[in-house]
Amino acid sequence: MIKFEIDGKKIQAKSGSTIIEAADAAGVDVSHIPRFCYHSKLSIAASCRMCLVEVENGRKPLPACATTVTAGMKIYTKSHQAMQAQKEVMSFLLINHPLDCPICDQGGECELQDLSMGYGRTSTSFIEGKRSIKDKDIGPLIATEMTRCIHCTRCVRFCSEIAGLRELGILGRGEHSEISTYVEHSMQSELAGNIIDLCPVGALTSKPFRFKARAWELRARAGIAGHDCLGSNINIHIKRESDSQPERIMRVVSRTNEKLNETWLSDRDRFSYTGLYHADRLARPMIKQIGKWQETDWETALTVATQKLQNVIAQNGAQAVGGLISPNSTVEECYLFQAWLRSLGVPHIDHRIRQSDFDHQIQSPLVWSTCKCVQSLEETTSFLLIGSFIREEQPLITSRIRKATQGGARVHVINPVDFDFHLTLTNRCIVSPWGMVCSLAAIAQVLFGNDKKKLNIMPKPIAELIRQQKPNTVEHDIARDLQQDKAPLILLGALAQAHPYFSYLRVLSETIAIEIGAKTLHLTDSANEAGAWLATALPHRRIDGVSIKEPGYNAKAMLAKTLKSYCLFGLEPTYDSAYPELARTALQQAECVIVCSAFKNKAMLEYADVLLPIATHLENEGSFVNIEGTRQSFQRSVNKPFAEARCGWKVLRVLANFMGRPGFDYQTVLELSSELSRNLENDLQSEHIPPVDFKPLPTVSDNTVWRCGYWPIYRNDSLVRRAEPLQVLTVEQDLAKLRLGAALATHLKVNNGDRVSVSSDHPDAKPVTLQVLIDQRIADATVCLPSGLPDIAINGPLSVVRITT
Amino acid sequence: MSLSFAKRQINSLLLLELFRGLSITGRVFLTRAITIRYPEEDTPISPRFRGMLALRRYANGEERCIGCRLCEAACPALAITIEADVRSDGSRRTTIYDIDAFKCMHCGFCEEACPVDAIVLTSEMHYHMEARGENIFTKDKLLAIGDLYEEKIAQDREKDNA
Ligand code: SF4
Ligand code: SF4
Ligand code: SF4
Ligand code: FES
């Protein structure tokens, strides 16, 4: 701590901090130093000179952002010399800046505009022509007006330091310098939208929001992002109802939360709102009457739903009903969903729509993860990443890992595809999905393969698998590095979760973690997986945490067993399920399918009987539990969700009321939350959990081909699938191709551009014909074909597939 | 007391107040009448008169309004409703520009706020509505009014600037 003075006030600051940091820490009451290029999360450029301040005994004003404080320093931010310097800098900045704020989309929320009110002159002596720069096309998300750029280079620094992609840079010198992507292309980074917030002027603005509203018309409401498991904090900007338009969500921007998203936001969370008012949005409840859809009021729709469901239960028993809820639903919705169905006697309830292997479910902990590791990710020095396209799944967690690697952290990856993470990887095992399990077992063998005692207490097939392995050098390296590290972190991604041998991966990674003293973190690709577990939207566990003796069907079995009736909440199983073919058949044959959803799609109109419109997470109220186990509540941002849509918890409550279930009398979401919290308190009951049987090892032949069917970033849930600007980016990626490595192509005797049929490994699976694209990043014996794409439905995202040429 | 009583008596006897009143009548009787035959005749008005609203164009026919919504924000009566979007040439233009003439109190703040002199109050005061809904001056209507009165509007601004 050093003592010094700002504007005559005595202040302390950490030694080594800059004047601007110290002044900001002291608060605005002490002083506010104007700045453009300085940003607390980026490196220091000291290029704009707006922050010049006077320092006692200094010969000339010094930039506050690049000058470290020293003991006894006396700083004047408002002295004549400082003000004069700042005013001169401002007039230089305005030389080439257009003076037409009313035209600019940043007007009203512009740092240059604000500061020019304080430091600008009222008249100009500049008569020469202003320079003008051609605008750049950098994709569907960001609009540019490069003439307004003041070359603060915040955007450039963001791209290289945080996003890990040097996409923007300065071309030219002096008068001719301009910001540009070197070769014209859409920005590839999934964090690119942050440069909109960063740009202090109107050079970079949001394209979907362009000219739609002005900052002063908008009302900001706090919300929680609902597309990944981080739980980023957001502000939702809403425009009030007018004669010409109902109340509308106009945009989403980030809200600072140092523990989670810092000041950033991924593009998926920032731009998903553009899907809100898509033509597919359900405006009113709909019922199918003799094969024809008609819109109706809530009363009728709920009555019809009640009758149909009660009919099925009366004829076939509650066993014939299955309930699937999206893991993106709020904790309250999950809780009510299971409570409602359980009150009807329905045993089949699940949210694990993307999982393939449920063997180990009974031994899963009640609370998914309580390790508060997100903030400490940057200090972690060794990572083992298993089955994750983490850059697309968790853009902001990736940026934290990237920062860790910049500090020397090592990242080891076990993946079926050599995904590009824009970060330096130390070791990579690019192996087929089954190979992933083997690699992990090999690492386990290096770590404790000789320890008979340890192997003996492990489940038989897993111990057997560990014994079989012959670790290669990469696996040795990984094991050694993990062993030597103080506190390594094992990350299991969405591909691990969707893996047909998830239980193996899980037991192996947990054993390894215990062996080396590591923490494990499950990175789910939904917002509230942890909350859905807590609220027991599960077939095998009651809300008090006790296991159910005879559990109901899990998400996969429910679809495979073709029940008489399904209740879907917030899901489009033909896109969201790991088993889209099964889902379609099962739903189509069912007598009664009740869907609570914000959007409709073609398949849904075929299989559903009643459609009940619900709010999306941007309009909803409730809470999400993020990956760290932090429960974050949010209130309704809008007065009323779109058209006739209602918050999900209300729909579920009223459904329960209509079916005459007692105890569903919640007036507000708060009542519901507090009841849930009470239930969770006495949750931690210990009970004896019987050991589970693991499925035997698969037989893998030379001809076995596995699929890697990850969910592309913008195909992940109903809302992003409808966000047009994000879909443009998805189309650019040209995903509907069968990607495979050269070795497999030779083996199959196919070439680039050939058309082949792919189907899941089931006798009556329907094949899909696709073009082959040879891609060196794909592991041997593996093809890459993403899930969630339109018109491509293949069961099992990481299962064996059949390919016929 | 008695003195003022006497004074009053004399005043009323001499009909002084009557003559004083009549002198005004006489004076006015002899000056020129200021009554005008409205509506055939108009009183002169200032170039700053704030009458019917209009949206102006540039000489090349391009609408002036850039959809900045400053007038909407400035309007104390909340009479202006604007929706804007990107036009095909990339510029911002209003898609809806409605002024409710019933709400408008002709304060002229919108004209004051407008950076491009698009929304103006013309010197025209002779307008009326016959049907419900006509009180909403749409963008088309406002532009048409502007086209019709452009010359006068320009003259008035000229005079005001001089
Ligand atoms: S960038 Fe800021 S200062 Fe420049 S025109 Fe836009 S609003 Fe005005
Ligand atoms: S585009 Fe914006 S953020 Fe980038 S250098 Fe220019 S002013 Fe700074
Ligand atoms: S009339 Fe003028 S102030 Fe109103 S939106 Fe148009 S340009 Fe802006
Ligand atoms: S903020 Fe210090 S030089 Fe730009």
Write a structural description.
The complex is a heterodimer of chains A (805) and B (162). With 805 residues, chain A is α/β, with parallel strands linked by helices. Helix content of chain A is 30%, strand content 18%. In chain A, α11 packs across α13 (460-468). The longest helix of chain A is centred in the middle third of the chain and has 19 residues, at 298-316. Helix content of chain B is 38%, strand content 15%. Chain B contains 5 helices and 5 strands, in the order ααβαββαββα. In chain B, the strands form 2 sheets. Chain B has a 3-stranded antiparallel β-sheet with strand order 2-3-5. In chain B, a hairpin with a 5-residue loop joins β2 (80-86) and β3. Chain A binds chain B through residues 100, 102-103, 105, 107, 210-212, 214, 216-217, 242-245, and chain B through 66-70, 73, 81, 83-86, 91-92, 96, 98, 115-116. The complex binds iron/sulfur cluster (3 copies) and FE2/S2 (inorganic) cluster. One iron/sulfur cluster binds next to α3 of chain A.
Major sheet: arrangement of strands of chain A: 14-13-24-23-22-15-16
Uncertain spans of chain B: none
- The low-pLDDT segments of chain A are none
Bound molecules: iron/sulfur cluster, FE2/S2 (inorganic) cluster
